[in-house]
Amino acid sequence: MDILKQLQSLADQVEVVSVQSEATSIVFEANQLKTSQVEQTSGMAVRVVKDGRLGFAASSDAKAADKLAAHALESAAYGDPVSITFPSAQPPPWVVTYDQKIAELPIARLVEIGRETIDLILAIEPEARVNVSLKRGVQQLAIRNQTGAEVAFARSPFSISIEIARIEGNDVLILEGVDGITAWEQDYDCMALARQLGHKLEKARTLTTLPPGKMPLIFSPSAALVLALPLMAGIDGKNVYTGISPMTGKTGQKLFDEKVTLVDDGTLDGRFGSAPYDDEGVPHRRNVLIEQGVLRGFIYDLKTAAQSGVESTGNGARGLFNPPAPAPTNLILGAGDTPLADIVAGIDRGLLVEEVLGLGQGNVISGAFSNPLALAFKIEKGQLVGRVKDVSIADNIYDLLKNVAAVSREREWVSTNFCLPYILLPNMNVVAKE
User: How far is CA 181 from each of CA 81, 192, 337, rounded to the nearest angstrom?
Assistant: First the structure.
């Protein structure tokens, strides 16, 4: 008997989710091919609402439907009391998230891309140790519930991760980058990330010193993750509901500089966080979270939306064995009007931060960060004059982003689903060895 029909007579609401995925991974370590593997996952997850309480169960055993139904009902007996409502059928936006060329990308081609990546880096820095991870796959999700809604979609994620280590005596330089898509764009270039990191390696050859003190700092898109991650935690509906987000209760207030606009958009063709629906069957959409410094809203899944008395924003994300929780799709920080070259040219003495060590460590939810810099360049009289070592920064993004001197016209996709510009903060404290 169909598990949805079976549970409809026993619970007030029922949701059945079927998950299938296949992922092929190629890993190079220290310039050499290390592993090649294929992983397959399939299973079913069930949520029920019975007597106002939410239950959840999941299994990878296709023959365990009766047991799965019993576990979901048992879970509901002790589950959260929440007035969640599973969605009826709703038309989604048209979003391209599946590409047969990615789904059928052969292992030999993945290996070739990895070797081309390593060759490019070694041509610039022969002593570098390069780790490369490539993954391509197919993910299929089908959602049904008691309203009659039936949602199904497929994604074909492709990602490349590169880590470069160069050690010369006591000078240790580590660079990292991650890129990802779900559909080839006509101009998508598998080697773009490698060339970008190679260019940073070339610039890093010249060393210079930097006296400590307060100075203007430019955060590159990669480094700007140290600012974006606390914002991501702050707009999470679960953190807002529990009251631990510093933004709780401040909707409509101007919290940041007017140059700060943050959007979550899961409707962009081919991007890593895109899909027609979220993992609960709610259509994805464009959510304006911060507009010219003013807090406009948060991201919610069905549960946190019900707890907060609002509607889901289409940001429910789940794994097979984890119930949904709020998560961003593609987080985009608005571009400015100033070219990066002009921002650099206007600085008499400052720092361009390219890479930060220890991202996500510390008290992220509070906005506080304290990080050594993996790669940073001294700016002197509008020119990059060399790489600086043994430099660290610490501050709080809720203070820093109240005064943003400039935001670049240029933006880059980093860490698969963040689109960030260069950000100039006018007066940051820099700790450096003299």
Answer: 38, 13, 27
Query: Which structure tokens are listed for 280?
Result: 């609960």
Q: List, for residues 100-131, the tens digit of each pLDDT value.
A: 999 999 999 999 999 999 999 999 999 999 99
Sequence-distant (≥ 6) Cβ neighbours of residue 47 within 8 angstroms: 14, 15, 17, 54, 55, 56, 72, 86, 323
What's the N-to-C CA distance of the chain in angstroms?
Answer: 74
Q: What tens digit of pLDDT does each residue of 250-294 get?
A: 999 999 999 999 999 999 999 999 999 999 999 999 999 999 999
Residues 50-66 as b or e (16 or more Cβ within 10 Å = b): beebbbbbbbeeeebbe
CA separation for the pair 219, 407 (Å, rounded) = 10
CA separation (Å) from 274 to 60, 288, 358, 379?
25, 16, 27, 37
Check if the beta carbon of residue 220 is closer than 8 Å to that of residue 422.
yes
Question: What is the residue-wise DSSP string for 352-398?
Answer: EEEEESSTT-S-GGGTEEEEEEEEEEEEETTEEEEE--SEEEEEEHH
Q: Could you give the C-alpha distances from 394 to 240, 363, 390, 400, in angstroms and in order?
A: 25, 12, 14, 11
In angstroms, the Cα distances linking 162 to 105, 117, 176, 215, 287 are: 19, 9, 6, 31, 31
Question: Given phi > 0 = left and psi -120 to 50 = alpha, else beta, which region is 398?
Answer: alpha
DSSP label at residue 48: E
Q: In the numeric block, which tokens belong to residue 69?
A: 């139904």
- What angle do helix axes 192-203 and 107-124 make, rounded to 10 degrees? 20
